[in-house]
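User: I'm putting together notes for a lab meeting next week and I want to include a structural view of one of the chains we've been expressing. I don't have a solved structure, so I'd like a prediction I can at least talk through. The sequence is below, exactly as it appears in our construct file.
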Amino acid sequence: MTAIIQPEPVILTAALNTAAPTGTVTGNIFDGLVDYDTSLTPKPALAEKWETSPDGLSITLHLRKGVLWHDGKPFTAADVKWTLENVWKTIHPRNQATFAKVKQVDTPDDVTVILRLSEPSLAILSSLNSNGAQVLPKHLYEGTDVLNNPYNNKPVGTGPFVFKEWKKGEYIVLERNPNYWDKGKPYLDKVIYKVVPDAAARSAGFEKGEIQYGALSPVPLKDAERLAKLPNLKVETSGYEWLSPWLFLDFNVERGPLKDPRVRHALARAIDRKAISNVVWYGFAKPATSPVPSSLAAFHDANAASDPFDVKSADALLDDAGFKKGADGTRFTLFIDYIPYGDDYKRTAEYIKQALKRVGVDVTIRTQDTAAFTKRIYGDRDFDLQITWFAAFSDPQIGVTRAYWSASIGKNIPWTNGSGYRSPEVDQIISRVQGEADASKRVALFKDFQKIVLNDLPTLPLVELKFFTVQAANLKTLTIRGDQVYGSFRDFWFEPPKQN
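Assistant: Thanks for the context. Below is the predicted structure for the 500-residue chain, given as structure tokens.
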């Protein structure tokens, strides 16, 4: 099977970098402790079963016996313990918060892992798949510089496919794991991920049958409807339930005019999120009113105050903040950087540039590759505005609060707090939801969280994204998981042509 990977990953280990291109490839190399069905219920994977103690202070995972790493070494509880203590709690962009309440990890035998918690943590079981909590082989990482370990780019996993080759700029090759624990699987012999930067070439590749799979909206949005009508292709929107993706604009709250909340609210009112949804994203999005997407209905606050689209109000706020228009109609200038994942994000930046021009703010768009983008935003913090998307996942603790937690600022940890927002009150809420066992109290805390961050507005939620997958019509699977985009192809096969 030939698949699209665009843009090219910067690393092949999702335990260290949670960027979408990395996750889509490595979900085939590494199994998770659990999988998720379309209702986001955890299902057995490397962990066959699990239980939580009545007081919520321990989670016991019973691992599958006989699982091997791709180099033939046995997968054991020691690998889980080492990864949690040395990667998830120290390096991983999301898991530093998700596993914050784990105070101790016990491994009474090779197939049992007991997480001892200082307080109950309801989010942990929502983040134990390959992308949420990827387990690394202890025997290849212990005692090394984890971030620069060579196996980050020639990964050794437990999954259905074995890493074979990565030719930078061209392709990544995975081959069938002959010793996979799920006997008889995978059905496919090989998966080739091609790097195809040109959007028109990706569409043409699907039409000609040269490419059989592409996730995360792999073709221009305007092409999706046309491709869906072709008999050899289908466009699938399921498999993204675990993501709940939201696109947002970060304000650098430590820089220039953006230090003033009035300026941030003014810029928010100059941007028509409905137009971004319908015009820029061709309807594959809906306006966002909160950083907690509406798909997370239990947590989303539909009544939280969100800035309306109101250009006159935006102008008045900027005047009130002391930024009058000059003789040329310009109040001040800003740079905007966008996640380099394709034309849709660039068009979003172009739209925002035009929208802010109407209120006298001159914007210059900057383009760079993923490595330069993440360093600029999350390391050097050398930006004014930046556009990116996060997956909220099935609990805001996992995917939303990382954008507001002050502890990650400037640490060069991608997909965390880019705005530089610091709020002791919000940090306290984030800490409290990590250890709150009462579901209703967690919901109330998250609603308080939304009110505060929408008032302070370090980040402007733009739209909730609706990703799609393009695949060959004869590429089959019995079930599509709720986390399929970051899952594996172990259950996929090609239907043979019908005989006359």
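A couple of points you could mention at the meeting. The longest helix spans residues 439-456. The first strand starts at residue 2 and ends at 4.

User: Perfect, that's what I needed.
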